[in-house]
Amino acid sequence: MNQQIQQSALDGPLFPMMIGGQAVVTGSSFAVLNPASGEIVGYAPEAEPSDLDAAVAAAADAFKSWSSADDSVRAAACLAIADRIEAHAEELARLITLEQGKPLAGIGSMFEVQGAVGWSRYTSTLSLAPEVLASGEGGHVEKVRKPLGVVGSITPWNWPMLIAVWHILPAIRSGCTVVSKPSPFTPLSTLRLVALMNEVLPPGVVNIVTGSDGAGNLGAAMSAHAGIRKIVFTGSTATGQHIMRSAADTLKRLTLELGGNDAGLVLNDVDPQAIAEGLFWGAFINAGQTCAALKRLYVHADVYDAVCEALTAYVANVRVGNGLDEATMLGPISNKMQFDKVVALVESAKTKGRVLIGGTPGEGLFFPPTLIADLENGDPLVDQEQFGPVLPIIKFTDVEEAIAAANANPAGLGGSVWSADPQKARAVAARLECGTAWINQHGMIRPDAPFGGTKMSGLGVEFAQDGLHEYTDLQIVIS
Q1: Where is the active site (predicted)?
Q2: Roughly what angle, to the nearest 10 degrees, separates helices 71-87 and 188-197?
Q3: Which of 270, 266, 262, 268 is nearest to 296 (CA)?
Q4: Is 462 a catalytic residue?
Q5: Which residues share a beta bridge with 231?
Q6: Is the pLDDT score of 423 beyond 60?
Q7: What is the pLDDT of residue 217?
Q8: What average pLDDT score do residues 429-434 get?
Q9: Nearest of 256, 241, 260, 235 to residue 385 by alpha carbon
């Protein structure tokens, strides 16, 4: 984990926390490293328990007025945040690339920043208008949505700024206030984002604390904190389970978007050349470090060899390198912890499967896009979420068996079906046990469609009207 460093030893920029509208630093900081080079990008403050208490208190104080602010004020705030992000797009994108590793271009850091702008603007269009359930001689009945209070947001390292926006914007749109805690691997872009938000929001509406503990002390303290009414978390299933346990005593509301091991089913009527690009980016977006990426590919025997060949040919032209290089298509794995996991899964798969391309680690944290064929359920690379640039390919002959194999995994975030017959594909997709099913694509989420997982992939949903409701209590008013 990142090493705690005294302030006097800093040899790079220190990004302060924001608490109650004020920039806050602490007695010590931790270094954030560039996964492409190992160099120090900057430093984030090492928060003390008293800093978390101060952030929660600031958010609670701000909630008194923010929760009663006119709806138009909160909508305008979302638009103002979008404008601030857009005005600083290049700065933010470069910071994401430096600390996370994804390329600036393509489906990389600038894409992430543009997504944050789009989500912020879309969230401004949502509202919590009362719904009349009955009106007449029997009485007037309304369903009212009321903001919960202080929301704790705990975000991961793979899409650090975009996921922060996914958590924070619906919270403040609904009238809640926020304490954010980013991953210690990628805190800098979120620290900068929250600083920009504080330029247009009242003090205390959005606060941020940072620590090098990952899912340890600071995250656990947030989950157990009596002053936080709800936790929204994106990350691993194991950490989500810890959050549920620590949140139980205060009966916090929870939205948990957890691990995925998404299956894609390729039927026997496809054109392998036509789907190769879509399969690749469905699996390898952000070097495979995406919860809803395609992580298991089941291919019908009739087209198995042709799909393997088409995918291999596509992968052969993919450029891996430093995200600041304009020619880079995929960056490094974001941190050593994840790199080691990917290497171990690939080494295990080599004993059983056939490496079509890749499979050998590069220098530092670079790992080439890797295809391993002839695997099956029960193999670790198939059963476990690899969260890296590796795709296992499994042959099937019977669609019923493929559906059963796809559903045998405890994860249930997303899935996809690939076929020349959309109607047949939809019939198969309807039987997949997952929160989102795509046809002839994978992983493309939208702000106007609720997103969440089934089974061990989480609780609740994000995005759209349903996602906004996750930040509210329901009250029935009868008169």
Answers
A1: 257
A2: 130
A3: 262
A4: no
A5: 152, 254
A6: yes
A7: 85
A8: 98
A9: 260
Structure tokens at 40: 């120090």
Closest residue by Cα to residue 275 from 253, 300, 250, 292: 300
Q: Measuring CA to CA, how many Å separate 189 from each of 93, 165, 179, 192, 431?
A: 8, 11, 16, 5, 39
Rounded mean pLDDT of the chain?
96
- Tokens at 265, concatenated: 């089913």
Instruction: Find out whether 418 and 264 touch, Cβ atoms under 8 Å.
Output: yes
H/E segment holding residue 245:
helix 237-247
Q: Is 453 within 8 Å of 262 (Cβ atoms)?
A: no
3-state secondary structure of 250: helix
* Separation of alpha carbons 409 and 420, rounded Å: 26
Tell me which of 99, 257, 433, 462 is the catalytic residue.
Answer: 257
C-alpha distance from residue 411 to each of 181, 237, 458 (Å): 25, 9, 9
Predicted confidence at residue 7, as pLDDT, reads 54
Residue showing tokens 């701000």: 62
CA 477, distance to chain mean position in Å, is 36
CA distances from 377 to 265, 322, 355, 373, 439 (A): 14, 34, 17, 12, 23
Q: How far apart are the C-alpha atoms of 210 and 212, rounded to whole Å?
A: 7
Residue 11: which pLDDT band, with cuts at 50, 70 and 90?
Answer: confident
- Fill in the DSSP letter of residue 106: S
- The predicted pLDDT at position 249 comes to 96
pTM: 0.96
Token representation of residue 415: 């899935």
Residue 419 tokens, joined: 């076929």
Residue 12 confidence class, pLDDT cut points 50, 70, 90: confident
- Beta-bridge mates of residue 458: 257
> Domains of the chain, with CATH numbers?
4-258+457-478 (3.40.605.10), 262-446 (3.40.309.10)
What digits encode the pLDDT tens for the residues 113-140? Answer: 999 999 999 999 999 999 999 999 889 9
